[in-house]
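Quick one:
INPUT:
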């Protein structure tokens, strides 16, 4: 057993040398409400790994006293249940690679009971390396009891034993559980169970701050209530269900069973594949309307950018509370993609109007659904009772009633219609800002959250066979790839209206600066550090000038050719092979003096008067420029 001591700055003072990415979130008391709010604000846009790192930083910031973190390394031959259930607060339990065979135990027929714990992490060596085998008669692998705060279960495989003797849950609990806050289930694989991962409490209970992310739930068993769910939550608050793969679930792949107003439930970026693959609900129970992703008896739920592929039931549903009569308000369906739906794509029977934006639906040709409305893209018919409802889907703004392209990045939704690109603040005001560039006939738009050194990510837009990298806030557009781009304006290099394409040249662009459009001077000024593939300066109708401003560096990996009728000048730094084919190079010297390059060479300009030549002979001539 290793002990890690962390001081108020987060420094390891024990000499254990453990990775703070793993244990950093254990070192402080539970986050303040402000810090929790910050975490929830960025959860959607960040990978779990980046989220944990941010959480670590916040915890280090909020730590005020040194705390002892107990790290327990456990091998398969040891008694894992006893070790976890007897662990103190502030403990990391590190499971080695291998297979842990667990048994069923009282009081909930669970393998392992977690209750009355604070700051507990159970982590494996990865879902391919650490395996927990459950007996066929265990109803729960991990049972989350009451009074649990800051719990993480991650990086392992929970595997049931077939045939199941009960409705085994990989992780779950009964609704009597309460006073649970800040739980994270991530990096898991759950197989051979009736329910993969669930988090439940009663209508007056507390289960707050739930993250279920980056997991795989592969195959569930059973068709009746309590069986066949991939991920299920009842009455939680501040929930993120994101970036999970649920494959071949049999009742609901993701089930929001109940959520009160202001619950803040977000279901995003998940992939649901082959829901009810054998069509058992239709063939056995007749309940083909049990949706792959179901929002039932719930309010304040955002379902965004999920992919539902080959569902053999209704793909996505919004359903009323026929038990307690709770409202079904503030439900937003945004950017979801339904592919090869066998029955209805999106179904609402709440008698309410729900916000939809940029969802797409394609159908599998299913003869069973023909002629009776079962195969409609959208339906508001209550099929179980055979009556129409007054339910409706409505765009948050008429300008987005039809959308060509849609993506989510950070806290924004980006939509394009007829080349008009809007950045939207979703789910509340739906305020928007429009890009000055019109992307008519754009082929695709992709969010790239990991690109850029400012943490904002970028959009990649393909237009006219060219890929552009677009800043999501200031709309600056950079051309990607080694294609050609030509100068056709006057002024700043970074003004994309000065270029033949819809953005400024990128690191591999082949740039031609050819003044064939005006008899006067055409001038391009580089005022920011940048890199391009190559530059050819060519004059024709008038003079073409490229100026590098002081304090900036222009790097040209394939060199600069300075042709007749052109001037290359400035007080900045050029890193390039420069070939003078009859033009004028006047960099680093007070105007109107110039240096004319006669032979190829490598020139580094480091100031108005500084110049260095390498590799060639040179000669100077004085003249005007």
């Amino acid at each position: 057993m290793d002990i890690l001591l962390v001081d108020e700055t987060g420094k390891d003072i024990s000499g254990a040398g453990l990775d703070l990415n793993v244990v950093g979130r254990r070192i402080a008391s539970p986050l303040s409400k402000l810090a929790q709010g910050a975490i929830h604000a960025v959860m959607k846009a960040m990978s779990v790994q980046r989220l944990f790192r941010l959480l670590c930083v916040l915890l280090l910031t909020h730590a005020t006293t040194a705390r002892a973190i107990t790290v327990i390394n456990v091998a398969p031959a040891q008694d894992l249940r006893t070790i976890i259930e007897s662990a103190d607060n502030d403990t990391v339990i590190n499971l080695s690679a291998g297979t842990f065979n667990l048994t069923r135990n009282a009081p909930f027929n669970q393998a392992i009971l977690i209750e009355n714990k604070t700051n507990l992490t159970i982590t494996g060596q990865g879902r391919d390396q650490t395996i927990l085998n459950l007996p066929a008669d265990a109803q729960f692998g991990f049972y989350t009891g009451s009074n649990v705060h800051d719990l993480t279960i991650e990086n392992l495989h929970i595997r049931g034993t077939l045939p199941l003797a009960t409705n085994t849950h990989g992780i779950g609990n009964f609704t009597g559980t309460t006073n649970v806050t800040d739980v994270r289930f991530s990096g898991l694989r759950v197989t051979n169970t009736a329910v993969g991962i669930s988090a439940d409490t009663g209508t007056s209970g507390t289960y707050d701050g739930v993250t279920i992310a980056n997991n795989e739930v592969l195959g569930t068993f059973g068709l009746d209530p309590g069986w066949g769910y991939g991920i299920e939550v009842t009455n939680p608050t501040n929930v993120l269900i994101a970036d999970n793969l649920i494959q071949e679930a049999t009742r609901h792949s993701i089930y929001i069973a109940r959520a009160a107003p202001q619950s803040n439930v977000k279901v995003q970026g998940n992939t649901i594949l082959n829901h009810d693959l054998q069509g058992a609900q239709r063939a056995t129970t007749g309940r083909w309307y049990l949706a792959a992703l179901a929002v039932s008896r719930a309010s304040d739920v955002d379902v965004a950018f999920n992919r539902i592929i080959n569902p053999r039931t209704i793909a996505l549903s919004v359903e009323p509370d026929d038990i307690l009569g709770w409202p079904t308000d503030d439900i937003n369906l945004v950017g979801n993609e339904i592919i090869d739906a066998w029955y209805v794509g999106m179904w609402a029977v709440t008698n309410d109007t729900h916000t939809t934006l940029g969802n797409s639906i394609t159908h599998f040709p299913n003869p069973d659904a023909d002629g009776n409305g079962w195969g409609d893209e959208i339906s508001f018919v209550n099929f179980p009772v055979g009556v129409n409802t007054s339910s409706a889907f409505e765009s948050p703004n008429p300008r987005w009633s039809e959308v060509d392209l849609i993506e989510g990045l950070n806290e924004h939704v980006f939509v394009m219609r007829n080349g008009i690109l809007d950045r939207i603040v979703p789910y509340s005001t739906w305020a928007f800002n429009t890009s000055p560039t019109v992307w008519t006939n754009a082929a695709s738009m992709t969010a790239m959250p990991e690109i850029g050194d400012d943490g904002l990510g970028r959009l990649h837009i393909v237009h006219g066979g060219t890929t552009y990298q677009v800043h999501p806030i200031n709309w600056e557009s950079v051309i990607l790839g080694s294609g050609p781009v030509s100068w056709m304006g006057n002024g700043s290099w970074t003004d994309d209206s000065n270029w033949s394409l819809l953005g400024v040249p990128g690191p591999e662009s082949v740039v031609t600066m050819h003044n064939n459009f005006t008899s006067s001077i055409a001038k391009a000024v580089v005022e920011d550090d940048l890199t391009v593939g190559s530059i050819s300066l060519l004059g024709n109708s008038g003079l073409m000038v490229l100026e590098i401003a002081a304090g900036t560096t222009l790097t040209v990996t394939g060199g600069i050719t300075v042709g007749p009728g052109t001037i290359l000048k400035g007080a900045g730094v050029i890193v390039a092979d420069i070939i003078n084919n009859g033009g004028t190079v006047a960099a680093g010297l007070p105007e109107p003096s110039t240096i004319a390059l006669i032979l190829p060479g490598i020139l580094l300009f480091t100031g108005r008067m500084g110049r260095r030549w390498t590799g060639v002979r040179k000669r100077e001539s004085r003249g005007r420029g």
